[in-house]
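Review box. Two proteins, two foldings.
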Amino acid sequence: MSGVSLKSILARLSPEYRDAVEAEAQRISDNTPRYGVYQHFKGGRYIVLGVSKHSETGELEVVYRSMDGELWHRPLENHPKAWLTPLPDGTPRFKRL
């Protein structure tokens, strides 16, 4: 994933898809977890794979995998709170490794 920019991806798309991709990218907040490995404060590690779109509702979801191989997804609206909001004592809930 390193070195691939949205601009380089957009350059390869046909015009009818480019606008749709740009609009979806704008909807994803800077607080969205990015591709990579995160460690939960209790010790578990998870790999954030990316953001997907629900086929029926259009809702954006974060897709991630536990280290035991289980695949999970969570609505993007819930994900930043669950992953990026620190615990009351200031400890990060998840830390990017």
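Next protein.
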Amino acid sequence: MRDVVIGLVTGACLLLGIACGPSLRLEEQSTAYFEHCHAAERDPRATPDERIACWEAWIAHWSDATSSRSRVAYAESRLRALRACKEGNIVELADDLLDDAGLGIEDAALAVRQALGD
């Protein structure tokens, strides 16, 4: 009887591992690409167009694979901010940062300077 229970538990664990494997792998790849885009934000060699393309690709291909809705919101917010900055719409950029991210004026000013590459 004990061998049967051990066999059933082992089989159940194996099935769960196989079933969860692909989703865990996708989550890990989504996280890695998110971190890649996040690192590009701090890389002075990355152009605004490259940063925009990175976030667009992450949203298009990896946002469904993440369980973190806050990452999706962050990526969308960064994309809006980068586009507004590229278009020279600093007022929209500051308003977006203040409203969506809940930033204070000092944090918004710092984010605008970072987006501009200063």
